[in-house]
Amino acid sequence: MNLxxxxxxxxxxxxxxxxxxxxxxxxxxxxxxxxxxxxxxFGLLGPNGSGKTTTLETIVGLRTPTAGSIEVxxxxxxxxxxxxxxxxxxxxxxxxxxxxxxxxPPRPASQTQDxxxxxxxxPTQHNPDLPD
Length: 132
Known about the structure:
The chain is α+β, with helices and mostly antiparallel strands and 132 residues long. It has three helices and five strands, in the order ββαβαββα.
């Protein structure tokens, strides 16, 4: 049985509530909120400078939010750092959440690399719009 067929509501994999991040006088993220359920595919879209990277870095605990709250698998990425890093990994801007909490078919490392390379015109040609 998958989560969509379950009669009991699943815990949200990610909950962002009123997230705000300010650098000096520059507001990078201004009060966004969203939820991501286990198994959902979720993306952040927007022009350069709209706060996508800051949002992701804050979700995974690389930055401290100015205001708001974040939970990933019910954990605060900063306060619950040890357990958080056991369940969540970030590589080349792909957020991976433990399959034991968010069931999904296992993906071999070669497929993860394929997903990254798919964003480039070819494995040897660099796309300047994507991070190295």
